Amino acid sequence: MMTDNQSVLGAVDRVAKGPLCTQDSLNLRGNWDQWSADWDQWSADWDQWSADWDQAP
Amino acid sequence: MRPRYVVFKPVIKITGNYCNLRCDYCFYNGLDQRSKQIIDSSLLEKFTSQFLEMYPGKDVKIVWHGGEPLLTGIDFFKEIVFFQKRFVDTDVSNLLQTNATLINSEWISFFKEQNFKIGVSLDGDQESHNLHRKDSLGRFTFGRVVEKIKMCKESGLNIGLIQTMTKDNMNRWEQDWNYIYGILNQKNWATNVFEPTSTFNKDKDFGITDEISREMYRRLIDFWIEKDDRNLLIRDIDDYVAGVIGYRARGCSYNNTCGNYFCLEVDGQIYPCDRFSTMPEYSWGDLNNQDLKDILLGEKALNFIEKSRGVHKDCQKCVWLENCHNGCTAMLDEDGKYIYCETRKQTFSYLDSIIKRERR
């Protein structure tokens, strides 16, 4: 059951609009080809997330 | 192949170290903050065109910093926006960090019209703010800053606050947070801790050690939980929550994106971050005689980014590795370990236990 603390719920809502934290950045360290491809995707995610973030109260 | 365009959020020190305040914890305290410095207009035009040409069809963010950026005067910023609007394919979001003392109705109208996002430095209530934030004549600044914050709010200009925490006011942190939240009715702010180890800070005795930092975050989380307010956004806490529930934090010191920022100094030098801008050995190049893309994709930049992606050997066995990545590159000890390592571990664990407890 999810907490009913509103401070926690608000933060969870905000951060859950962003990308999941995966092992990518650890596994890809030293593998720049894959890292670059990942970066392009993540930048797109980030742009969307930032736009959402800016709408936050 | 190495990463392309790993840098996308510039911090422009448009006035260098030039400032009308003399905050004693500032990176630039002790340097020349009195001499007027404003970035050369033609250099800024070169930067704007070369930066925006790298991102056709994208949204980019540019952070305006100083010193005090409003010392340029409003016409300079009108020129900046004019440069930017030539690039119709790129949407630019401008963010500006100010001490607020120079804000007036003209600035507010401009910020609203051009959709600038404004961050104001305020350390807490009168007693805490005036401890370290005095002007060039040694006068307190709290009254002027709060007046301008209220002016912004009454004019419908939403602002964020950045609060710098020091050891000096640790016995009254809750009073400061209650002032910001309860009296100013500000629900969105960030906390910076004044770190005690870097070259410019180590002689000052009000730095927050790892041990004090742990206590600070514990008390801040308790404050945040007690308010029980969905709209209360304290930036660092959101970053910790992201880590606890498995999402990527937003802050560069959490999410392994050191180097996504870069700093353009007033003299044209490019640094990895404004925290490094007083250290010439960290310069990536000089925009006066190099192209921006060559600097950002040059060996110095890529070597820095590659190195910053590394972690300390102790991180490999840490359960919070993917949520912390050894913290801020500018805050490593001599062994290369984040100076607030224990703070990170204990704060993640503390918040984790609270969320799990609340879930029962």
Please, could you describe this protein's structure?
The complex is a heterodimer of chains A (57) and B (360). Chain A is mainly α and 57 residues long. Helix content of chain A is 65%, strand content 0%. Chain A contains three helices and no strands. Chain A starts with 5 loop residues before the first helix and ends with a helix. By secondary structure, chain B is an alpha/beta fold. Helix content of chain B is 36%, strand content 14%. Chain B contains twelve helices and ten strands. Chain B has a ten-stranded mixed beta sheet. In chain B, helix 1 runs parallel beside helix 2, helix 7 runs parallel beside helix 12 and helix 8 crosses helix 12. The longest helix of chain B is centred in the last third of the chain and has 19 residues. The N terminus of chain B is likely disordered. At the A-B interface, helix 1 and helix 3 of A face helix 7, helix 8, helix 11 and helix 12 of B.
Which key terms come to mind for this protein?
heterodimer, A: 57 residues, mainly alpha, 3 helices, 65% helix, disordered C terminus, B: 360 residues, alpha/beta, 10-stranded mixed sheet, 36% helix, disordered N terminus
What is the strand and helix layout of this fold?
The complex is a heterodimer of chains A (57) and B (360).
Chain A: H1 6-15, H2 24-27, H3 32-54
Chain B: E1 9-13, H1 41-52, E2 59-65, H2 74-85, E3 91-98, H3 105-113, E4 117-121, H4 126-132, H5 142-154, E5 159-165, H6 173-183, E6 188-193, H7 210-227, E7 233-234, H8 235-245, E8 261-264, E9 269-271, E10 285-286, H9 292-296, H10 299-308, H11 321-324, H12 341-359
Parallel strand pairs in B: 1-2, 1-8, 2-3, 3-4, 4-5, 5-6, 6-7
Antiparallel strand pairs in B: 8-9, 9-10
